[in-house]
């Protein structure tokens, strides 16, 4: 038998990247935060360099698995585009000419400029923006308000917060992604327009495990996704018509007396008006609106209402990326209370949540963030335009930022300090680009020299998750304080450390921030008795035992956290602010029904923003392994529509809307239904957001209508060449 100490054996072990004393390879427990699901990772490290990654076996989050994004972590960490030193602009803004400077010079310059704007134009003239990662958001929000600015805003101005708003208006709880759905114990899943296999793969696995145990699945959405293919019923609707479908299901449930009468009578507000409004959407009418056969609507309503318990799972964004998005989401989540599945075992069970995951642990995150009340600060960006957002969400609405920068109304915005800002997040990104170029001072913290970073005056290099300590808690209360797996690339630093360094200069009176990252976390989770030192002694994480579980049916003790103390079919907040109190269905601002004349020229429904498993937003296109999996931009088009236009598979086509046109490959596929064209978002050189008007927004949330507008597709005259 070969001895493991022999040179040939050691070489074989090293080539196989087997950890141990013979190879010098060690395993460090860390997280993958590329998509924010935070799968646990075994980082194989040799001589301070990452050489291999694997999913951590036994992890309650991903149990040894990694998706394609996580598996490509080495190419993410050691990408040649990584920023390695602070940079100061030397050329014209946008030219991308910079020179290296020291961290002290960079931070001193930033602090001096921001303090100057505060003295000259007020602290509100400075905007603090958080993109990815999300882990630093409580720290940046605290810095923002400690500085005196109300203008903390995030990429959530286009993301899951709209779903939170829908749940909050109905129940007083922030029901965002999943809405507290107890997938593992429910008997029926109403999966509304989400495909976890393409976004958060472990959740997809849990869903299919539930189906293997006999759980029923109703899938709603236009795409033939993996959940749709396994569903007992698939409701394939026209994008943007979720509200009409949900109201029709409610009509069936009420008419057939399948609703929870005791819950409705004792714990809801506005049911009679809701019932009357839902009666306008019988299945035959809803079929004409949504395209879903009336028989399927009836079958789905009966299955969901009679299979107890049942849980609704929604996407973070799919239901709300419409100009009628929040009301759509309200109509969907109203079904939970209507059927008595709210806050009950196996249904939708809201628990205290934070940016550190919905673990149900008691915390003081809001108190940590909100160090100054809104009443002591100027109005937020977007407060006049989106009053519902400002009533519910403790942020500025970033969709209003470009206009305020360019107009100076109601007051000037002179500077933006951003962490991971991507101007292509906005519809009509050229407008946002012009706004950033018009600023007096723009700072961007990034891993890479992105297109947006080139507009900045100072660019600061950030670390990846594997190069920093990070704290996370899973919904199962598995908590981890990761060790730094590898040294930072170049002079890059963790986002939170950058915020803390700026805090020393901008808010030196903040004694808690001065104590550092770990001390702040312990303060936030002090009600749960969290100890970072204890977590550090368990590198693979530990389950937090002995903390009380979040009870069910909390409303029976304290009522609902709404103005009426009841679930509100008719929202008192919306009524007060001049909006429809009921979850009224309105057509998207562009649709074959709302704009028939426009539909003559642009007859196809255009839906954007979906993901492929290897991409998330614009973050991983620069990773070679992942880009090779989908090297060119594509638009999904049904064979019926392709045939009518003489389009063949992978032919170059032009996708056009009233705003503009893009050249992409045609992916001719049954994945999309006839009449619908789908594009993933963020593709370099083929950004679907360029085809959307800047004011194509939901008036309640401010979220763009990414997923329902109109387009046309024809063969492109130039069939040669590579991707744009």
Describe this structure in words.
The chain has 724 residues and is α/β, with parallel strands linked by helices. The protein folds into three domains: 87-159 and 365-466 and 492-543, 3-Layer(aba) Sandwich (Rossmann fold); 176-338, 3-Layer(aba) Sandwich (Dimethylsulfoxide Reductase, domain 2); 596-715, Barwin-like endoglucanases (Beta Barrel). It has 28 helices and 25 strands. The longest helix has 19 residues, at 103-121. It is globular, with a radius of gyration of 26 Å.
What are the defining features of this structure?
724 residues; globular; 28 helices; 17% strand; 6-stranded mixed β-barrel; Rossmann fold; 3 domains; Barwin-like endoglucanases; Dimethylsulfoxide Reductase, domain 2; 7-stranded mixed beta sheet; alpha/beta; single chain
Strand and helix layout:
Blueprint lengths: L6 H9 L9 E8 L6 E8 L2 E7 L12 H4 L1 H5 L9 E3 L8 E3 L2 H19 L4 E5 L6 H11 L4 E3 L6 H11 L16 E5 L3 H4 L1 H12 L3 E5 L5 H5 L2 E3 L6 H14 L5 H7 E2 L1 H8 L4 H8 L3 H13 L3 E5 L10 H14 L26 H5 L17 H6 L8 H7 L7 E5 L9 H10 L2 E6 L11 E4 L9 E3 L4 E4 L13 H12 L4 H4 L2 H8 L7 H5 L5 E2 L11 H4 L8 E2 L3 H5 L19 H6 L2 E7 L13 H6 L4 E4 L1 H6 L7 E6 L2 E9 L7 E5 L28 E7 L9
Parallel strand pairs: 6-7, 6-13, 8-9, 8-12, 9-10, 11-19, 13-14, 14-15, 20-24, 21-23
Antiparallel strand pairs: 1-2, 2-3, 4-5, 4-15, 16-17, 17-18, 20-25, 21-24, 22-23, 22-25
